[in-house]
């Protein structure tokens, strides 16, 4: 990565504008190395872990090099699962914000007629699972004889899921003049053979060495939130946890400015740091933070790189980072000098799977916490106010107010007076005007019990795919997943419960007929 910027890589201006809107200040390692090589026209094998920004690594150069041919598919991208197809398509739509291009995800579990109609109207980029792409090819709806770009994403996952024959059949129908891109976390022999058979002799193999990504002194937690409640959720967390020194990470420069403005308006002692600020501004802000004159620092990943402050107690990911390495850099700002630190991450249901990928890559456990209720905030503040009152009573300073208190005693009950003063302190310390006791995103979730677990080699990705495809529900209906040794629990939206129980019970999941029922309250 170093000091390389996206503008140094040779991408089109309209693509760079989209990347800037997405808030990425600099490329990840795989992006910095792969993009220039793809723009030169080479076939590429990109070897990097999940969560390193591979979609942008191939998407940005494809969109920068694309010359549209009316009515003909320009690019085919194969992914192992429906979820990944949707995710890649969504990411490409963001990168193509200022590029006139039509994209379509195709996968099982969705009516094929709708996909056929869209393809007949003309699509430039197709993102799909091998089975559905083959089905559409056999129906003569997808023609790959003129494609310019072929991408095989998560190739090792494709292999594990038994798609190798389907992939070969798709490739054999592709234009011989195509540029081929293969991305995989590992390089098993079957993938190497596939590359030798179908990629050019001058193919470039770019491997990003995996650093050991563990932060053993940091306790990691996440809060599942609703997007509209992101800021209120942060305020609730800060009001209950009362971190003494915290760095709050945002994905974009604009995000930092908006967060700082909102926090300062509610009395938080906070300032921001990002790439648009001059060196003096950043140094002054960092000096205040180091000297303890700021409680909170809101920052982007790039701006925070130079921060070396030993007493940071908390790191809060207000937004998820763009890759796993950035997550590790972020939470590494706390838990220094053999001290323990705490990292909190705010995620929506849509972002949950990305968090699970980070958890897998870091080999750490990111535990769930519930968004604090107003009752819990009151309890927390009551305890801290009580400590301050006791400390004041142990000091002699308060005695100058005894005559005033005696005057109040003539007109009021002194217990009421004390309660009124405590209320004044509470109102000053609670920053947000909370209107609901509970905004936890799982309030509309039902917890389901499933008779399949780790011993059946079940993983969250499989479970999400099974439930969404079998019950024909959206992945956004699926929340927290806990996979235990012999059974599992999953939170799902109340509206999806009947479909899951009706269509999934008795079906084969990870080699076992699964029974599903509503779990008893924990």
Automatic annotation (TrEMBL):
* Keywords noted in UniProt: ATP-binding, Cytoplasm, Helicase, Hydrolase, Nucleotide-binding, Stress response
The record ties this protein, via InterPro entries, to: DbpA/CsdA_RNA-bd_dom (IPR005580), DEAD/DEAH_box_helicase_dom (IPR011545), DEAD/DEAH_RhlB (IPR044742), DEAD_box_RNA_helicases (IPR050547), DeaD_dimer (IPR057325), Helicase_ATP-bd (IPR014001), Helicase_C-like (IPR001650), Nucleotide-bd_a/b_plait_sf (IPR012677)
Tell me which residues make up the Helicase C-terminal domain: 217-379
Cite a single GO BP annotation. Answer: response to cold
- One Pfam family from the UniProt entry? DbpA
Listed SUPFAM superfamilies: P-loop containing nucleoside triphosphate hydrolases
The cellular component terms of Gene Ontology attached to this UniProt record, alphabetical and capped at eight, are: cytosol; ribosome
- One function term, GO molecular function aspect: ATP binding
The answer to keyword Cytoplasm applying to this record is: yes
> Motif Q motif residues?
4-32
Q: What is its EC number?
A: 3.6.4.13
Q: Where is the DEAD-box RNA helicase Q domain?
A: 4-32
Q: Does the keyword Protease apply?
A: no
Classification via Gene3D superfamilies: 3.30.70.330, P-loop containing nucleotide triphosphate hydrolases (3.40.50.300)
Q: Which residue numbers delimit the Helicase ATP-binding domain?
A: 35-205
Superkingdom of this protein's organism? Bacteria
Q: Can you state which reaction this protein catalyses?
A: ATP + H2O = ADP + phosphate + H(+)
The family line of this record is: Belongs to the DEAD box helicase family.
Record-given protein name = ATP-dependent RNA helicase CshA
- Protein species of origin: Clostridium aciditolerans
